[in-house]
Amino acid sequence: MIAHRVYALNEQSLTIEFGEEINPAVNDQVMALHHALQKEPFRGFVESVPAYTTLTVYYDLFQIAKEKDFNSTSVRQFVSNQIAEKLSLLTLSGFPTLPVLEVPVCYDLSMAPDLPWVAEYCRLTIPEIMEIHSNEVYRVYMIGFIPGFPYLGMLPPELEVPRKMRPALSVAAGSVALAGRQTGIYPFNIPGGWQVIGRTPFSLFDVNREPCCSLEVGQRIKFVPITLEEFKYQTTL
């Protein structure tokens, strides 16, 4: 069985931790269990939420308890047993691999307020940053902090930068930004502390669409540079 640790998040959820290091192998284990639960959910299963190294499983305590004389402790044990059974049969090749999605990004300085600072910090030219950033294929490790925000990794070490000492009060929707060894995309106009180096016309979240999020955990994306004119044209489509 794959090494893991299980702990209660609250009365109706358990978190399964597969490790502490962010890497594709650990995330593969997270996604394998996630897809196994989606394919064959246990009684009372609500949803599972994948992250870097963990999968949180939510369940309906009352739905499980009403069919047996269970209390909250025995329901938790029931869910733990269901998860253990899934893990005992888990294979890392049993979940779908999505094709690489190309996401357009405009690195024009009017869209990239922090690009000059990042260039100075990394001791690189702006064209070098654009080339390095857009040459990588990134994995969506988790969706979080706000709906649709993808945490993408891993950045090449030469682009590793700290978060801002003082977050910006407003970051434009579609802003592509860096923090640590990660890159991400802001789905809405919100405050933020990542270093913004570009912007995409790609829509990340739409409450009227099913599914609401355009990206999903485990997906791979590649940024494709576009001009300012192309950005303006694509935003009008």
3D architecture notes:
The protein has 237 residues and is an alpha+beta fold. It folds into two domains: 5-88, Gyrase A, domain 2 (2-Layer Sandwich); 101-235, Cyclophilin, CATH 2.40.100. Helices cover 27% and strands 28% of the residues. The protein contains six helices and 13 strands. The chain has helices spanning 24-39, 61-65, 72-88, 115-122, 126-135, 228-235, and strands at residues 5-10, 13-17, 45-50, 54-59, 101-106, 138-143, 150-153, 168-171, 175-179, 182-185, 190-192, 195-199, 220-226. The protein has a seven-stranded mixed β-sheet with strand order 5-13-6-7-10-9-12. A hairpin with a 3-residue loop joins strand 3 (45-50) and strand 4.
Strand order of the largest sheet: 5-13-6-7-10-9-12
What composes the largest sheet?
7 strands, mixed
Rg for CA atoms: 20 Å
Share in β-strands: 25-35%
- The domain count comes to 2
Helical stretch count?
6
Percent of residues in helices: 25-40%
Q: H/E series, N to C?
A: EEHEEHHEHHEEEEEEEEH
* Tertiary shape: elongated
CATH topology call of the largest domain: Cyclophilin
Compute the number of strand runs: 13
Summed over residues and divided by their number, the pLDDT gives a mean of 91
Q: In CATH, what is the class of the largest domain?
A: Mainly Beta
Oligomeric state of the chains in view: single chain
Structural class: alpha+beta
Euclidean distance between termini CA atoms: 49 Å
Just name the CATH architecture of the largest domain: Beta Barrel
